[in-house]
Design a protein that fits this description.
The structure holds two protein chains of two kinds. In chain A, 9% of the residues lie in helices and 39% in strands. Chain A contains one helix and eight strands, in the order E-H-E-E-E-E-E-E-E. Chain B has two domains: 93 residues, Elongation Factor Tu (Ef-tu), domain 3, CATH 2.40.30.10; 132 residues, Rossmann fold (3-Layer(aba) Sandwich). The chains are: A mainly beta, B alpha/beta. The interface between A and B is medium-sized, with 24 and 27 residues.
Chain lengths: 90, 249
């Protein structure tokens, strides 16, 4: 992978907010490929026609988010689990 | 369109440019007055949306460079030559103009005094913007968290916030500020020279045993180098927060 081109999950904070209806960059997800857990703000993001979220430890694809005419389409690839803190609306 | 607040949704708000500060030839700070702004934490950012007459919309994220202050939001924007949004913000936006913003966004790259320290801030180019929000909040709150601020710029003319940083360090002894200039230096330059590297970080960053909280923001290559070198120097990955804003152009 070209290390000059990726961003991190912070860059998708607005899109993730649209998707989950809440702030998500400080929440943790587990990679189904290597088992590492990372805050979504720390995953690697490659932006093109859509956004590809990759595990910062093994580079496996965690999620792909593609805009379409009515909103966005999301595929969950190597996400084993996501942890969401309830009771906060930061 | 800006509308009534809906739960679970970030609403677009109308913000008016109240003041514009030219920081360098390519960077300006825009002080926005935004009725309904809910406040923010240092390190958070906003989405800015521009709509052309034909309805075409372009949207970008910008870090907020000052702590919460009522309905005021300050962003510090660098010109990206082939960008869609920054050329408008740098070259065309005037005081009194309105733009759409939404936020605050981001809970990951955030520092507030209660998180403690020591605090290590490392910024490349306009990556100093969110770090400045943290530093300004630290000063404003009277926090005694010790902080070291290291910024990298191409030349003396490209240093952002230089005068304000000088006045902060002259008044707050827990704040240390260092700049490195990568391409050219004035004859009387007493700061650091060259790109940030292992030797520079080993000498000037809080040593790993002090367990600093490190915030690194800048172009992707800069952040990669700094973050991996900090880990090599023994810093815990979990105490290094990064924010990359893409390739330099």
């Amino acid at each position: 992978m070209d290390s000059e081109r990726h961003l991190d999950g912070n860059a998708l904070a607005g899109i993730l907010y649209d998707l989950f209806g809440r702030e998500m960059t400080h929440e943790c997800g587990c990679c189904a490929q290597c088992g590492s857990t990372n805050q979504l703000g720390a995953v690697r993001v490659y932006r093109a026609a859509g956004d590809v979220l990759r595990c910062p430890d093994c580079d496996d694809v965690l999620m792909v988010i593609v805009p379409d005419a009515r909103g966005m389409r999301v595929s969950f690839e190597s996400i084993r689990w996501l942890r969401v803190t309830t009771g906060t609306h930061k | 369109m800006a509308g009534a607040a809906l739960p679970g949704r970030l609403n677009w708000l109308i913000a008016e440019a109240g003041e514009i500060v030219e920081e360098t030839d390519r960077v300006r700070s825009i002080i926005l007055d935004c009725p309904g702004w809910p406040g923010h934490l240092p390190g958070q950012h906003i989405d800015v949306r521009l709509t052309a007459e034909d309805g075409y919309q372009a949207q970008r994220s910008y870090s907020i460079s000052a702590p919460a202050d009522g309905e005021q939001v300050v962003i510090t924007v660098e010109l990206v030559a082939d960008g869609e949004v920054s050329p408008f913000l740098i070259e065309d936006l005037r005081v009194g103009d309105q733009i759409e913003i939404r936020g605050p966004i981001g809970g990951y790259f955030v520092w507030e005094p209660s998180r403690g320290g020591p605090l290590q801030l490392i910024g490349g180019g306009s990556g100093v913007a969110p770090l400045m929000a943290m530093l300004r909040e630290l000063v404003r709150s009277g926090s005694d968290v010790p902080v070291r601020y290291l910024s990298s710029a191409r030349s003396h003319e490209d240093l952002i916030f230089r005068q304000e940083l000088e006045s902060i360090t002259s008044e707050a002894e827990e704040v240390e500020v260092l700049h490195t200039l990568t391409r050219s230096q004035p004859p009387d330059w007493t700061g650091l020279i060259g790109r940030v590297n292992r030797v520079m970080l080993a000498q000037h960053v809080w040593p790993a045993f002090t367990r600093p909280l490190c915030y690194v923001c800048g172009p992707t290559g800069f952040v990669e180098t700094v973050a991996s070198t900090l880990v090599a120097l023994g810093h815990q990955p979990g105490r290094i927060k990064t924010e990359r804003f893409g390739p330099t152009s």
